[in-house]
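[job 4471] stage=fold_predict status=RUNNING
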Amino acid sequence: MNVIRFLLQNRTELLESTGQHLWLVGWSTVFAMLIGIPLGILIAHRRQLNQPVLAVANIIQTIPSLALFGFLLPMPWLGERADRLAILALTLYALLPIIRNTYSGIISVDPAVVEAGRGMGLTEAQLLFQVELPLAVSVILSGVRVAVVISVGLATIAAAIGAGGLGEFIFRGLAMIDNRVILAGAIPAAGLALLADLGVGWVERRLRPR
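[job 4471] inference complete, writing structure tokens
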């Protein structure tokens, strides 16, 4: 009850922090999709690039979040705005599931279907947009779903560099040794992750090839 009372008393600040959290997650997911989906398509058609690209994405994923923020902090332009830095870091973390699932989705398309498209005179671009991507879209969205959930969780760490978000409540609660304040950040962040998972999962099921 104390946590609920605290949430109600600080609802204005909580809504503002939730908005900041959504801003960070939203933009980082968009950028990760703009980078990750083309990369996944590229390595699906150029298999020799598969291991180097996935290896780099895997290495990024293993870097501790606070360490990555620290590495990026001295960068010009980025270091001037904490939200820019946080968006870049979250984008980098979101790349692996999107690249991997895009690659998996494209290579899982039945080669006979692709050959049938070629036999009908479709160009490579037409094959990609009219055959491969429509058949792979649910697998790609599954990667986006994982990326969004990862970003919601990692965005709480962005408060450590002053980027805002629900992590501010968590860090403040840790400093005060107050579980109410920690939960005020943790509960909405968990709720956002759950809603994002359900929302993207619903879209994924709707677009799954029948």
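[job 4471] summary: The CA atoms of residues 94 and 147 lie 5 Å apart.
[job 4471] exit 0
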